[in-house]
Amino acid sequence: MRLVLVGPPGAGKGTQAAMLAARFGIAHVSTGVMLRQAVQERTPLGQQARRYMDRGELVPDQVMVGIVGERIEAADAETGFVLDGFPRTIPQAEGLAAILARDGRPLDAVVNLVVPDEVVVRRLAGRRVCSGCGANYHVAYDRPRVAGRCDRCGGQLVQREDDREETVRRRLEVHNRQTEPLVSYYREQGLLREVPGTGSPEAVQAAIVEALGQATGPRATGRGDRP
Ligand code: AMP
Fold first, then answer.
1. CA of 221 to the centre of ligand 1 (A)
2. 10 lines ligand 1 (CB under 6 A)
3. Which of 35, 162, 163, 176 to mutate to test the pocket of ligand 1 (most atoms within 8 A of CB)?
4. Which residues does 183 contact at the CB level (< 8 Å), separation at least 6?
5. pTM for the predicted model, two decimal places
6. Is 127 a catalytic residue?
7. Which DSSP string do the residues of 23-88 spell out, in sequence order?
8. Could you report the per-residue pLDDT of 27-68, keeping only the tens digit for each?
């Protein structure tokens, strides 16, 4: 199964993509995670990307299509993938379509997680991320057992540089201008499934699975599943 998740920053794409990857046995490809790792490791890509990320701007399309094109060729993506945070622009979507057409691996569906702007700002301004394993928490809705420490790995919880309120508003503006047109692009191709992104992670997951035309219930095999 090959899926794309779109939606504003803070819509829950990361959480939902991780759940879908586990459910269907496919690779979770998050460009945000890949870029943050590159920044942390100070690779040439990281150094280039950081300038854009800190401002809440998008990293150039050509760079992004190159990274994702390489990533989805990896062995763990053979059974499929769920793209989280990519594509974010029409040129990225076209770049992806060209790669998938070349490989004869078309997308099965694009899920649009719909979340109002005020909910996005509340979620992101309170979000804390583990500096060790990347797990997400929230100061009000999802606190760790020990303040400031990750439940899973004990790592320190930090606020992402780009989750500060001013940058969140900038990211939303960028989303509305550059990413929102993707919704029409994929709707015209008959691939779009719109799902409300408000509600518990489990409820949103159930709604996505239903929108994909899959049975909710026990874990699916992932192989040969079609929406
Ligand atoms: P995310 O974690 O998906 O919100 O991504 C964090 C930041 O990484 C974004 O604000 C962008 O600066 C950059 N980024 C992630 N994915 C992309 C993409 N597909 N195209 C351009 N920039 C991206």
1. 30
2. no
3. 35
4. 6, 112, 192
5. 0.85
6. yes
7. HHT-EEEEHHHHHHHHHHTT-HHHHHHHHHHTTTPPPPHHHHHHHHHHHTTSGGGTT-EEEES---
8. 999 999 999 999 999 999 999 999 999 888 999 999 999 999
